[in-house]
Specification:
The complex is a heterodimer. Chain A is built from eleven helices and four strands. By secondary structure, chain A is mainly α. Chain A has a domain of 212 residues. In chain A, a hairpin with a 2-residue loop joins strand 2 and strand 3. Chain A is globular. By secondary structure, chain B is α/β, with parallel strands linked by helices. Classes of the chains: A mainly alpha, B alpha/beta.
Chain lengths: 305, 388
Amino acid sequence: MSWILILEQSLNGLQFGLMLFLLAAGLTLVFGIMDMINLAHGSLYMLGAFIASTFVQLTGSFTLGVLLAVPATAVVGMILEMSLLRTLYARDHLSQVLATFALILIINELVRLVWGSDAALPGPAALSGPVELLPGLRYPSYRLLIIGVGLAVAVLLYLLVTKTKVGMLVRAGASNREMALAMGVNIKTLFTLVFGVGAALCAVAGAMLAPLFAVQVGMGENILILAFVVIVIGGIGSIRGALVGAVLVGVVDTIGRAFLPILLGAFFQPRVASAAGPALASVMIYLIMAVVLYFRPKGLFPARG
Amino acid sequence: MKAKLVYLAAAALLATSVQGADKVKIGYIGTLSGPSAQPGIDMRDAFQLAVKLNGGKLGGLPAEVLVGDDQFRPDVGRQLAEKYVKSDKVDFLTGIVFSNIMLASAPIAWDNKTIYISVNAAPSPLAGKDCNPLFFAASWPNDAYHEAAGQHATNRGYKSAYLIAPNYQAGKDSLTGFKRFYKGKVVGEVYTKLGQLDYAVELAQVRAAKPDALYIFLPGGMGINFIKQFVAAGMSNEIPLITSGFGADQDIIRPVGEAMLGLFDTAHWALDLDNAANKKFVAAFEKEYKRLPSVYAAQGYDTALLIDSAVRDTKGKIEDVEAVRKALKAAKFESVRGAFKFNRNQMPIQNYYLRVVAKDNQGRLVNKTMGTIFKDHGDAYVQDCKMK
């Protein structure tokens, strides 16, 4: 157990957290402003990855493919919002869950029809190897790119939300929707825009993670659950909460998986440690969520008063 | 007049039904949707190809294959088994990919005196104390690939090994099988969450442990993720990676790509096995489905051939379950894997090969046979089986 290992795992946690943030940011805005539980958010993440794989194949360039996939997925998201999801705003959460769950299944099979069960999205060849950050610490250069992109997007979102008029409208809608409506904000366009931005963020996450993970049908479901945990911890409707929650979840999950088995191994037999370690580690995030909710039922940074 | 026609029709029906089976009905349940569907799709495609190449017949009788999708859920598998066995009255139930679904569904066949032939899963209890005369495995015993991999690691002289598998029954069995034949030191044994995506944490631990070799059992999407990340971390140049054939066949090669080159794995079959049945199979599969067959497809194809041989050798009298069992056990068919025979626990005794991922002469990524690890290898549980 060395400092190098701890540092490497911390970087892993940060990278995981930043990607979760991209998904959680869109999800928390949709939930916070439109009061809609959108389970199909994970499907947008999957669509982003598949669309990116097609564009990368067509253009032969990773950067170009990803840059094209982001607006394309945003457009798909906005069409989805205008045609289907708009009718769900007025309904109760259960109807939204049912409808968007059905959307997950439909989009899964549609993707399978168009692309097949999986697609290949190779990363940029220049970043396929490790980089020596410190003597003895070799970290995959592609993961460093992910950290960079995640931080850049976080800064961009911060500027968008705090320094622009649109951002102000978004914050107003998240804080008190009825009042924003009463003040004459064009809710319809705002909602579509927010949905489009959420879809674009999903596409960035999906395309950036695709070279590391498998691009396959159903890839959105696992990460969606984590995204919901993040927004609950961070506070519904708050982007700052999404960032803090995501990094917290990412680091806790990583440290838990890395060091819990070792910690248990110091007290128990190896057989017990290797069985209990992974089980406990996967539960850590939910424990954190329970603890946070106990002290702050509305999350760490609730958007509404 | 109408009544007379009805009576005539009834009499005709009665007459034909006395004669015995005029076709063979197969209930085929597979995982055909979701992230882990590719093996099931390969098996079903190959099974149907075998029937097609036989003129739509098995053993000389017209074959009716009812195909259902268990969606990776044991309750759906059970429902389909109930339908096929009880209401469609199939002669054979087969097709299930995953052990947990099979263990939930096959007993329905056994309770109704219907034979279950496994295309894939063959968990160790069914090889040992729970062996069942109505259960045949046309694939391999669950531990076999992992035992072969352990033997390969021993043969290569790797003094230390780090092991990773998912935290469920098949994962635990896989590492037990590996350790049974690996004579070096196990420096790490990690069970990851089933369906886990990101292995950065585990990879960092592996790098810190500095083993001579890394063995993984991560089927489906898990394997795709792991191998991609392993290569991205630069570890493919430092630590030799060994996997079972489940983690290195066409369903993984296609999404991962050239990062798989040089990976060693073990299986009971490879594309380049030199026998007439295999050459015919590979060519026909590629022509029909425009893709290369995987080891799963080879299993599906062989299962159909096995059923074909049993129906043929009982001369179509498939209502006599004992006679069918005897014919199945004799296994007189040309398997694409070469020599095939059943052990007394109705699990295969066969060879296991070392394969490496390389390019064929058309530049495609395939598994090439490097050598034989085990010849005529059975399983470690047969002594607990009370069948003769």
